[in-house]
């Protein structure tokens, strides 16, 4: 079930998704003073956006759920530098092109003073294309930063097609400092929650609470303990719904997995991952707090871009979880 609020942009009308920040290592006894992580984002081939966008479609949700990212809209994404997706393993790979993003990073330690103005200290323009699906390409930027005796903020933003995201800030712990970390699970609602249930009116209020805590006492890592999203709705796609309605058990077992089933399921997973992780408040948390995730059956179903690229991005285990300090 998607956490998107009514009238929020969906994957059908987006041309950019992310950024999502991953924690890799940096607090274990063998890490020294090196922190490692990565940033994931998705860009979409311009022709795909134009074909999917409804007339008058808007841009994507900003940090507070209301302001659109400049240029990241179906009509506004210019045809900037593009990278052919030939050779990637996802569905529809090899024919679509998507703008190659650039990451601009400002680290207070490097003399930039931590301010948001001026030229970025580092420009990363060679992200790794992880996979491609339905015109989307998933990109990963590897980060490696040195820890110091004080915790400090690091700022970054992304550019694609001549436009840019807002600037986000994440915090690095000091050398030897136990990380202040948060934990979440069950990020969504299963299909048995009634459509008029009061909790559906404001499904991300706990994320706002987390962000308030983060603003006062910065979190260095956010651990997803399972059910990072709910994919129950895949069983409502036409072909799988028809298969599930068949009361003949033997025919169910013998039924083939058809190309149409795969196309419907792939489209569902792709859009559900993008919409769920781009929901207001969730998007800011995942862009501002390095995350690591554990996966279970709800989130572990087959998906081309999302299951492959997102899991590659987030599931590399931290070097030493015992050096973390829980929030609260």
TrEMBL record:
One of its GO terms (cellular component) is membrane. Residues 1-35, 106-129 are annotated as: Disordered. Residues 181-297 form the PhoD-like phosphatase domain. Residues 1-13 have a biased composition (Polar residues). Gene3D superfamilies: PhoD-like phosphatase (3.60.21.70). It comes from the Eukaryota. PANTHER family: MEMBRANE PROTEIN, PUTATIVE-RELATED, PHOD-LIKE PHOSPHATASE DOMAIN-CONTAINING PROTEIN. This is PhoD-like phosphatase domain-containing protein. It comes from Chlorella ohadii.
């Amino acid at each position: 079930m998607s956490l998107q609020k009514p009238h929020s942009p969906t994957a059908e009308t987006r041309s950019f998704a992310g950024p999502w920040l991953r924690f890799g290592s940096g607090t274990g006894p063998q890490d020294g003073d090196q922190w490692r992580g990565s940033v994931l984002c998705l860009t979409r081939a311009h022709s795909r956006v134009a074909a999917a966008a409804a007339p008058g479609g808007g841009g994507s949700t900003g940090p507070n759920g209301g302001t659109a990212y400049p240029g990241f809209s179906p009509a506004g994404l210019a045809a900037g530098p593009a990278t052919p997706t030939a050779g990637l393993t996802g569905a529809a790979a090899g024919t679509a092109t998507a703008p190659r993003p650039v990451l601009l990073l400002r680290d207070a330690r490097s003399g930039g003073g931590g301010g948001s103005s001026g030229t970025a200290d580092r420009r990363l323009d060679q992200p790794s294309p992880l996979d491609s699906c339905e015109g989307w390409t998933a990109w990963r930027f590897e980060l490696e930063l040195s820890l110091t005796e004080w915790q400090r903020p690091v700022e970054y933003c992304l550019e694609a097609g001549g436009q840019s995201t807002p600037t986000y800030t994440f915090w690095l712990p000091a050398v030897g400092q136990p990380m202040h970390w948060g934990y979440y699970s069950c990020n969504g609602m299963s299909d048995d929650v009634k459509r008029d249930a009061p909790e559906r009116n404001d499904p991300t209020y706990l994320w706002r609470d987390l962000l308030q805590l983060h603003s006062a006492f910065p979190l260095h890592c956010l651990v997803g303990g399972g059910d990072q999203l709910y994919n129950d709705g895949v069983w409502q796609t036409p072909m799988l719904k028809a298969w599930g309605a068949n009361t003949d058990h033997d025919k169910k077992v013998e039924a083939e997995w058809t190309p149409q089933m795969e196309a419907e399921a792939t489209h569902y997973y792709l859009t559900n991952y993008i919409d769920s992780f781009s929901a207001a408040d969730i998007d800011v948390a995942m862009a501002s707090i390095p995350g690591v995730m554990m996966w279970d059956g709800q989130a572990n179903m087959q998906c081309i871009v999302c299951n492959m690229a997102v899991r590659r991005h987030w599931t590399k285990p931290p070097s030493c979880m015992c050096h973390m300090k829980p929030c609260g």
